[in-house]
Amino acid sequence: MLKSMTGFGVGESQDEGARVSVEVRCCNYRFCEVGVHLPRALGSLEPRIIELVRGRIARGRVQVSVAWEEGAGAPVVNMALARAYREGLEALKRELKLGGKVDIGLLAGLPEVVRYEREEADVKRAWRLISSACSQALEEVEGMRKREGERLKEFFLERLEALEGLVGEVEGLASVQVERIRERLEGRIKEMGVQGWDPERVAMEVALLAQRSDVTEECVRLRSHISQFRGSVERGGVVGRRLEFLLQEMYREVNTIGAKAADARVSHLAVALKEGIEQLREQVQNVE
After folding, report:
1. 245-264 b/e with 16+ CB inside 10 Å = b?
2. Which residue in 6, 40, 125, 170 is a FRET match for 135, CA 20 to 30 A apart?
């Protein structure tokens, strides 16, 4: 199945005393790049999260955000700091002749007087919750990428059919190109008033010009690239780079057709072919 590189998913997991929420965002990128944001105490789990993501996503820039919540822990009072605060505030009152009381409510709200100590993080427990939530988020990402991939597939097949139609028009014009070259060359000779011109010499010149402007090989290769592109799209999988390469080759053949064109209509068709290939190129940037 064809997949895009754009997706978003959320997963949650919890047990007694802890809850984790994971968000996964993915956008297009040439390679697989994974960034992880999680609490410092759980930093050792980052490589395992990256490995989990890369097992599901082959290409794209992926950002994983982990939110961890658990109980506040046991309160611990810093008596020395509270005493220093009290003495300093009492001295401030005396010095500036201020009113008010230095009571428990005021002291408890001052920085670092009361703090909460948590037990050291249980990495095994954290990984169990995080891996579960991350897997849920990746499932949502996968679903979004597949749905977008189906829309891209429809677009690609439609545009490929249009390109094949344009190639057919080029081939149709190429079949009558020799006669048009002959008519144009003879018309110029007559305009110049040349007398007694040699028909055999004209035929040789026509043959030479026709050979230089022949695009049969280019059309054959272009049809082959279109066929390979269609096959890759229908098979699906990780085909983004292959599609990019085929588009480069298609563009190369169309450039040659335009350079060889001995007819304005062929030139116009070459421009139309380039426009179609550019439309494909824009969307291929988002294929895994």
Report:
1. ebbeebbebbebbbebbbbe
2. 40
**Which domains, and CATH codes, for the chain?**
7-72+120-145 (3.30.230), 75-117 (no CATH), 149-284 (1.20.140)
Whether this model's pTM surpasses 0.90: no
* Residue corresponding to tokens 């940037």: 285
Task: Show Cβ contacts of residue 21 under 8 Å, excluding neighbours closer than 6 positions.
Answer: 10, 11, 12, 66, 67, 69, 133
Which helix (H) or strand (E) is 14 found in, with range? strand 7-15
pLDDT score at 266: 83
- How does pLDDT run across 109-129, given as a tens digit for each residue? 888 887 766 656 678 889 999
User: Quick one: tokens of 232?
Assistant: 């890759």
Alpha helices by DSSP H, 192-287: 199-212, 216-235, 240-260, 264-284
Count of all residues that appear for the chain in the document = 288
Q: Tell me whether strands 7-15 and 18-27 are parallel, antiparallel or unpaired.
A: antiparallel
Write out pLDDT tens, residues 160-169. 999 999 999 9
